[in-house]
Amino acid sequence: MLFISILAIILLFITFYSVNSNANSNATSNYNYNHNANANDNVNDNDTILTSAYNSRNSNSNTNTNINIKTNISNNITSDINNNIHNINNIKKVNTSRKINTNINNMLLKRKIDSAIKKIKKIVKNGKNKTAKTVTLKELIKFALENPKINSALNKIKGYKQNIKINESLPEPVLGFTFNNANGFNNPEIGTILGSNYTYSLNQEIPFPTKLFLKSGVAKMRYKSLNDNFIGISLLSILNTKYLYYDLALTNSDIAIIKYDYSLLGMIKKIVEESYVIKKTNATGPVRLMLEMVDMKSDLITLKAKRKKFLLLLSLITNKKFNYIKNNLHPVFPVHILYSKLNYKKILIKAYHHNPYIKSAKYLYKQSKLSLNLSKQGFYPNFFVSLSYGYRYFYPPALAAGIGFSLPIYFEQKQLPDIKKSKKYLLSSIYKKNWTFLKIKSDIKNSLNSINKYYKLYIANKKLYLPESIFLLDLYTNSFEVRHSSSFAMVDAFKKVVKSELNVYRYKTDYLKKMAFLKTVIGKLSVNYKKIAYEK
């Protein structure tokens, strides 16, 4: 009987030991699983373990051994549950810390974007801040009007102006001296020497009266035509200077905008990478941002090369050293654009009276008409007057005078070809005048259309597209913070902001360049610029 009792106790002990081992194994298994799962699953698994242990405890509640075993099992399970809860809390703290860091970064992103938006609005509204005393556009134009090309053209027309006086003057008089030996060199005894063997003479040719008038008229029209061409060259130099100035201002603003946006995009990339680490976004977000940054860096390299090119061209056109232009020229856009509806007919009338190329074509036409009339004068005779004093054979020396005329004989050698040539030149001048006028009309129409187009695009980008893109960027940034949108939407909105920023200045530049071109087409050179161009 004692043996049976001892055997029963041993069997009962083995049974409860097996239960205890299974409970510990389940607890360990649940801990390892919960280390890689979420907190709610951990709590459910631990509740299952606790219920299993509780049922084991109730099924063996009649013996003291059972009570001791129950106590050990309960302590072990309680210890495992506490360990699991501690690990769950640590995981929650890590996730909470990451979430807090992400929220802080998103707040920084939001502040940066808000700051960028304010800066963009300020730049677009007021233009770039003016720098210290630098070379202005007017000074740059003054340098351009003093370059060697302008001086060369000016001296050429000043030299041609002398042809007016040359062509209206009589041909040079001819002074003659003659020695006569009437006796002959081989027979000095023949004849009688009565007076001097020397004769002095003066001959003056007088062209037909209208020839001088026509020749001086041709030279005068030619001079006026060249002078207007010189004004056209001066206006083109001013226009090229303005073009380069505005292009350089645009390039500088593009570089400043892209540099600022590049740094902002770098910060967005950092935030998206942190979101990728915590599985908030996929890997394509950081990759796309990296590619966008590479594109912006490439754009910066291109823009810097363009800026150097514009500086070199300005150095050439102003005849200033490259370092002088680079260090002292900081072009800025005008703060406000003055726009008013321009009347095509009024501008066309102004251009017809002031455009130097139309005026030059008119003078060329008048020159051709006078040249035709002058060529017809080739059929008319030229007169001459002569005076002489000296030897008269057997008579004493005396002062003698004579008058005569010369008439061409072979008209087909010079006169007729000259008339044909003059007719062709006249026809050419008519075509040139008409073509120049048609070109001016076309330039004015195209300029007015472009001015209206670029002004509307400038206003649309400044007051519509840029604020809209800024609003979308703000919206997608907020959505990205609460995980309601992907990084792609935020990047696309950011690209629209950059594009709108660049377009504001691009269309402003195009508007200013077209206005400068229209002023050149009208062709009225200001008094100050005329003084600069003609002062030498």
Describe this structure in words.
The relative contact order is 0.10. This protein is of the alpha+beta class and 536 residues long. The protein has a 4-stranded antiparallel β-sheet, with no helix packed on it. A hairpin with a 2-residue loop joins strand 3 (382-392) and strand 4 (395-406). Helix content is 75%, strand content 7%. Mean pLDDT is 74; it is low at 16-78, 80-106 and 125-132. The termini are far apart. Helix 3 runs antiparallel to helix 6. It is elongated and about 135 Å long. The longest helix has 69 residues, at 209-277.
SSE map:
Elements: H1 2-36, H2 39-59, H3 64-126, H4 137-144, H5 148-168, E1 174-179, E2 198-206, H6 209-277, H7 284-318, H8 322-328, H9 344-354, H10 356-376, E3 382-392, E4 395-406, H11 415-481, H12 487-522, H13 527-534
Antiparallel strand pairs: 1-2, 2-3, 3-4
Helix pairs in contact: 1-2, 1-3, 2-3, 3-6, 3-11, 4-6, 5-6, 6-7, 6-10, 6-12, 7-8, 9-11, 10-11, 11-12
List the helices and strands in order: HHHHHEEHHHHHEEHHH
Main sheet record: 4 strands, antiparallel
User: Segments where pLDDT lies below 50 for 5+ residues?
Assistant: 16-78, 80-106, 125-132
Mean pLDDT: 74
The strand line-up of the biggest sheet is: 1-2-3-4
In DSSP terms, counting alpha (H) and pi (I) runs of 4 or more, how many helices?
13
Give me the Rg, rounded: 51 Å
Structural class assignment: alpha+beta
Hey, roughly how much beta strand do the residues contain? 5-15%
Q: Estimate the global geometry from the Cα principal axes.
A: elongated
Assembly classification? single chain
Distance between the termini: 143 Å
Number of strand segments: 4
Helix content: over 70%
